[in-house]
Design brief:
globular, seven-stranded mixed sheet, 9 helices, single chain, two-stranded antiparallel ribbon, Muramoyl-pentapeptide Carboxypeptidase, domain 2
Length: 301
Amino acid sequence: MRSHSHANWSPCHSPRTLMSDPDTDATRRAYWTEQLEAAHHFMFEQVLPYPVAENHEPLVSLQQAAAQADVVLQFSTRPHALGLPRLFYLRDGQIPSFISAAAEMNARGWVMRVEDGYRTPQMQKHLGLIPQVFDAVLKSVMWELGSQRPTPEFMFRRCSTLVASVPKFGTHMSGSAIDISVLHLDEPAREVDRGAPYLEMSALTPMGSPFVSDEARRNRRDITALMRRHGFVAYPWEFWHYSSGDAYEQVLASTGRPAIYGAVQCDLQALQVAPLPQPEQPLNSFDEIRAEIDAALARLG
């Protein structure tokens, strides 16, 4: 593998400062609320009850797979929640498509940077609670609510869509999803413009945001079309998230087939998987969220 590493990305960028013009701000706020409510409906009404026929395919290292292919790829070097290493894995059946997507990007003059892959339940639980992420979500929620303090119930509602706080619809826990950035092959430190960096939390975040430039919109469209040619569907409410074989793909593509990848726990030595017990149960309680709201408000002053 011809590989570059990336050391300047942080786990969560602060939310972009939105324009202060009242009309623009109100328009963006209304759009953000509409999109998050649509994402909540998708998660709870379509994905949560969706059937899964787990096929028990093992996880495979993307870095090892890429080392055997003549492709240029990058992988984030930042630690995950709790300082844990990032786990760049997908299911065995997804590997050929992942490599072919990366190769097509190279042919176009692009480089895929994988920002995140498989997450253990521990990683997913604490990702939603670490200050860098929770504070960013809280800021976006308070902006949405006109500076009001959210209830734990409302914060859970938003975390469910922004951080996937229920394993059944957290496709990173299925080992079937990757978060990606895209860079220029001839300038590997320069990102292809998608309107905002990974992880943006604002009205720019949904894939179809009307608030990004024409160039960013074209790039989002072209990257998504490329990934789709190799079997990956885009999550409509984040411009960086792609997956296949899971309930997201079956619902978004209206296949009528059960998902073959569901939330799993994994032996990280053997990379064998087993279905996660009670994947419909939230990872974080209202009491944990309430305590974190208090802590975040204290941090934010």
